[in-house]
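Progress against Task 2.4 (sequence-to-structure conversion) is shown through the following example record, which the project officer requested during the mid-term review.
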Amino acid sequence: MALYEELVMRPSVLRLGEAMERKLQRDDSKPDWCMQSPRYLRNMLIEEVTELLNASASEALDEAADVANLAMMYAERVMSEETDRGRSMMFAAREPKPKHH
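Structure tokens generated for the chain above:
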């Protein structure tokens, strides 16, 4: 049995997750974040953390959702690059070595 099947989501996690998904769906028409570099996403994350730290109580959940979404995007891109780099190394290892006469 997988671990996630046994999870009971905390109300605060659900609230943040719903805010994250609302923001992602609202921005579906924007360019795909998967095409952004990790450096760009990291810089955006830093900006959003600053906005969260300066947010009023009524803005806190929306700003936290922005931070969480950018953290997720950054992590996905970094993992994707690592996977791509691993694939490149795997295929390079399979290429025949040139023969020297």
